[in-house]
Design goal:
This is Tryptophan/tyrosine permease. Keywords: Amino-acid transport, Cell inner membrane, Cell membrane, Membrane, Transmembrane, Transmembrane helix, Transport. The protein is mostly helical. It has a single domain, classed as Amino acid/polyamine transporter I, CATH 1.20.1740.10. It contains 15 helices and no strands. The protein is globular, with a radius of gyration of 21 Å. The chain starts with a helix and ends with a helix.
Length: 402
């Protein structure tokens, strides 16, 4: 029994870590390079602490129900019909924004693949189409197919990450790490926040660990801290290798960070490892979010569980992001910013605070996970609003600048 309980806790930790680590890593250095390595460390700390607190707030809500719930149900029970609608809309917005990011990134990735490995030019739109068609078929088949594929992909992601770090260590220039531009450092928060997004798993993990509070708190804290360490090493490596001017030029051209690394290092072996890492990062994120989105729509729409209806739901989940990424290319980073600054902040920041605040006024509210009372709730809420306003400013500024 003791081994089983340890295994379930380890599994929960890895599940949380795995849901965080993915395609967001390709965007993190691009957005944080403008502020520098040292300011980025502070922003990462803010993001991790913030998302850990919001994760624990959601855990508190989940543990105050005696039955299995999801985020939509929790919002409806604690905040009423309005809360249910806001959570549903936020979920749809978040899923679509992430799907646009991954689909857009896949087109550029497949185009670079074709050029590097086969020597011919592949249109990014065709690359995105092939990507969505193949991996969308896996999502259509169902959870078992996605789970089986994801095991191999996660293994590839882990191996390519460590190979990338090992190859790149000798190319790090410590002089690149001392650049600091504090006034723009906060603009990285939306992408950093979405890189710690695991909150939709919390109701399931609460059930999986049989509502054991100590294990659940450990799973949330440790499971999110592992990506924090992975991101810091990744930032140190990439920002240490790529000078600021290369980041600025590459960002204007919509290049992937792995492509910029190739331009600096030039090794064919390194190119293969870097592009493999980007591939695994994009695909693991895509199939995980796509499967969750399809299941979410299937549960929310009044449709019978048939293969034809599942095909329709898959088209509804995958079609609009594909078309959007074709009409508006190079949206990978912008879509991640919108997902984090708007979708994740509302769904995983504002709503958990309001749910806990509403729930704690009830005499039936037994489990209090997050200490500090209304003061801590206020800090988390204010930080959520701060990130939302940062993204709103960026959205308006970019539109005006365009």
């Amino acid at each position: 029994m003791k081994e089983e309980s340890k295994g379930s806790l380890l599994g929960s930790i890895l599940l949380i870590s795995g849901s965080c680590i993915g395609a967001g890593m390709l965007g993190l250095p691009m957005i944080s390079a403008l502020s520098g390595f040292i300011p980025s460390i502070l922003m990462f700390i803010f993001s991790w602490v913030f998302m850990t607190f919001t994760g624990l707030l959601l855990l508190e809500v989940a543990l105050n129900f005696d039955y299995d719930v999801n985020l939509i149900t929790m919002a409806g029970k604690t905040l009423g019909y309005f809360g249910k609608i806001v959570s549903w809309v936020s979920f749809v917005f978040l899923f679509y924004a992430l799907m646009v990011a991954y689909t857009s990134g896949s087109g550029k990735l497949f185009s670079e693949f074709a050029h590097s490995f086969f020597g011919f030019t592949l249109k990014e739109s065709l690359g995105s189409a092939l990507f969505v068609l193949f991996f969308g078929l896996t999502v259509y088949i169902g959870t078992y197919a996605v789970d089986l594929l994801n095991r191999f992909l996660m293994l590839g992601l882990i191996l390519s990450y460590f190979l990338l770090v090992a190859f790149g260590l000798s190319y790090v220039d410590s002089g690149n790490l001392f650049f600091k531009e504090w006034k723009v450092s906060f603009f990285a928060l939306p992408v950093m926040v979405i890189s710690f997004g695991y909150h939709n798993l919390i109701p399931s993990i609460a059930t999986y660990l049989k509502r054991n509070t100590k294990k659940l708190v450990a799973a949330v804290v440790i499971g999110s801290f592992i990506p924090f360490l992975v991101y810091l090493l990744w930032e140190w490596l990439v920002l240490g290798i790529i000078p600021l001017e290369i980041f600025q030029k590459g960002s204007q051209r919509g290049e992937m960070v792995t492509s910029m690394l190739h331009d600096i290092i030039g090794s064919n072996v390194f190119v293969s490892v870097a592009e493999s890492f980007a591939f695994f990062a994009i695909v693991t994120s895509f199939i995980g979010v796509a499967l969750s989105f399809v299941d979410f729509l299937s549960d929310g729409l009044p449709l019978k569980k048939t293969w034809l209806n599942r095909l329709a739901v898959c088209l509804l989940a995958l079609g609009p992001p594909f078309l959007f990424s074709i009409i508006y290319p190079n949206l990978f980073l912008a879509a991640l910013e919108y997902a984090g600054g708007f979708g994740a902040v509302i769904l995983f920041g504002v709503l958990p605070v309001l749910m806990v605040y509403s729930g704690r006024k009830s005499k039936e509210w037994r489990n209090i996970i997050v200490p500090g009372g209304n003061f801590v709730l206020s800090i988390v809420l204010l930080f959520s609003i701060f990130i939302f306003l940062i993204q709103l400013y960026q959205a308006v500024y970019k539109d005006v600048g365009a």
